[in-house]
Amino acid sequence: MKKVFLLVIFFIGTAVSAQAYTGSGDQKVNFGVAAWGYGTGIAATYDYGLGSLISVGAGFNAYFDRFKDNDRDNRIFAFGRVNFHLNSTLDLPSKLDIYPGLDIGVVGRDFGLGAHIGARYFFTERLGVFAEIGNNGSLGVSLNF
Fold it and tell me: What is the rounded distance in angstroms from the CA atom of residue 139 to the CA atom of residue 70?
């Protein structure tokens, strides 16, 4: 019975046509852990596709530890972002999206700027994982809308 269940899950997973980035009108929401950068905490971002190469969005990180400059006022980073999607340029599988990007916003009372390179991989049409590394990085779950 266990083997049959695993076989069914395998076929469902391979039959689903997941798309990591579809271009204009594409919408993604990421939820995860802010693992490095201005602190350690939680992260959430939203991205909206403007075309086959560019998306814009916004993000919000709340830090619980290791605040920027050890200043407790720097517990929040609210930012806008732009990403450049390389999946069609690099001829990547449709489930994978690699994107460099920039973040610009406010950390507490200070100006915040970050650069990252990220990757998303979708297991199903709606659910995937992501990781971003750079000045401000995170990892977690990605949702497709």
Answer: 23
